Every structure is written in structure tokens, then in C-alpha cells.
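Illustration 12: Leucyl/phenylalanyl-tRNA--protein transferase.
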Amino acid sequence: MQLHVLADNYWFPDIEQALDDPDGLLAMGGDLSCQRLVSAYRHGIFPWYNDSQPLLWWSPKIRAVISPEHVHISRSMKKWMAKCPYRITLNSQFERIIAQCAIRPHDGTWITKQMQQAYIELHHQGFAHSVEVWDDDKLVGGLYGVSVGQLFCGESMFHRATNASKLAFIQFSHHFAQHGGQLIDAQMPTTHLQSLGVVDCPRRQFKHYLRQYRDQAVDVNCWESQEL
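Figure caption equivalent — predicted structure in C-alpha cell form:
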């Protein structure tokens, strides 16, 4: 296996050619144009790098996925949601959501300024979407990601209040399922995501899901700016 260097076209190598070490590294170079990003997500690839690195493209051996109707809500979370005063919206503050996701004071961030601008443009083109959680007029949590037909590729989430990111994920999952969404890709498994029902998916199986869902449309009003 070798690391591929991307040319000026929007071609990507097959994701089975990704390196084992580091796991999933597939290619470097290219740009963050909308055409390239859309091509990447349609083939199970996402960019991940920091300011000191070249542009790197990944497709890990194990993906974290969930069918949206199977999201897990714990008993304590259900009790909390029954009393929760928060309001949840879709696609009302994309720029603020991605800026908040980029704030990682202890760990640094891979959501660079260049990355933010690229996904904001992707949002304007109708491919990237955000979920916002509000406590009155205060933004306390949310997430963003990229739609690929009936698949949603989650990129990042944040919270500034207890359970706010979990609430964003749960409410979005319900909305996505109701509008024909079939699968949510959370990229890499974490304890936080596993608590919501996200499971491991081998890369080859993920390729099958991509072929099955990427050219299938969700309901026409799924991505309209609205309250969830």
C-alpha cells in the first residue's frame, strides 16, 4: 500500500487501498472545493488534518454507524428530555455551529479556518447541514455534517450545556428517519456515540451501504430550515 497524491481532477482511489498504519489514511493533496468534497463523501472518504499538515484524506477500517430509527435513549435521558426546555432547529445557524465545533481549547482542532470556509460553501450548495440546540436565545449545543442521498455523514458536535449534543443527535435522528434517511455515519467510534447506539461497521460493508443509499433521495423538505 502507498499513500496516493491527488491530482487536479476529483478522482479518489478505492478506499480499500487505505493504509493500515495510520489506519485509514488514503491520500494527500488536492483542495477543499465543493466538487472534491462531494466526490470524497460519495466514496466514503473525509478530510482530516491540522494547520501543520498537508491536506489528508481518510477512510478508516472500521466506521461508526447507526440506522437513525435505532438511536438509543437511556431511561435517564428520556426523563431529562421530558422536562427539557431546549428548542432544536435545523439549518438555522450553520456558520455558528461549525465555529463552535472548532473550539477545542485543550486538544487543538482539525476544523481549521480553511475547513470552516469550505464547509460553509458546501452548506450554501445544499450539501452540509447543521442542528442547533437553544436555551431561549442562547446556542448551547449542536452538530453538523454532510448529506449523501439517504446517508448523513456526521462531522462534529459540541455542547455548552449538559446533554445538549446528545439531544441534537437524538432529535436529528428522528427527523432524518421520518424523511427517508437510512444511515448516519459517525466516522470513528467513541464512548459518547456508542452510548447513543452507534455500532462498528467494517469498511467493506460501509462501501455496500454507500452504493445502496448515495443516489436515493430523502423527502424534499428534509433539509429546509425548520424547528425539530
